[in-house]
Amino acid sequence: MKQFKSLHEAAEYATSLAGQWSFANSDAAYAPEGLLVLAQTSDAEDPIDEDSVYVVSDGGSIGLCEDEEDIDWLFIADQEKDLALPDTFASGGTRRICNQCGQEVEADAHFCDQCGASLN
Ligand SMILES: [Zn+2]
Fold this sequence. Notes:
Layout: E1 2-4, H1 7-14, E2 21-23, E3 29-30, H2 32-45, E4 53-56, E5 62-65, E6 71-77, E7 95-97, E8 104-106
Antiparallel strand pairs: 1-4, 2-3, 2-6, 4-5, 5-6, 7-8
Helix pairs in contact: 1-2
This protein binds zinc ion (ZN).
Zinc ion binds at residues 98, 100-101, 103, 112, 114-115, 117.
């Protein structure tokens, strides 16, 4: 999964991976040209916050991640419409693994939730 700061960049990358998308929860279908035009309009009229990123799945679906965790899938690539896309985004720096027990913990946690080991 890749991250982009604008929908147009995400859409350009997605068009290298897929050929048709449907808009989440509707029957609207998009070909590459339509997707790129819509992305450009969206960036101009409604740019995302600094904390948000667009993500593109390996199969070319495009999602919006507003809090560095949950993903709202906006455009589902036809080849992925029957797949379960991940609904969270593990951005890599936000979680760690406890050295003592292997539990996944928040990056800024001082102690492990599971075994209480100090993480500093
Ligand atoms: Zn632990």
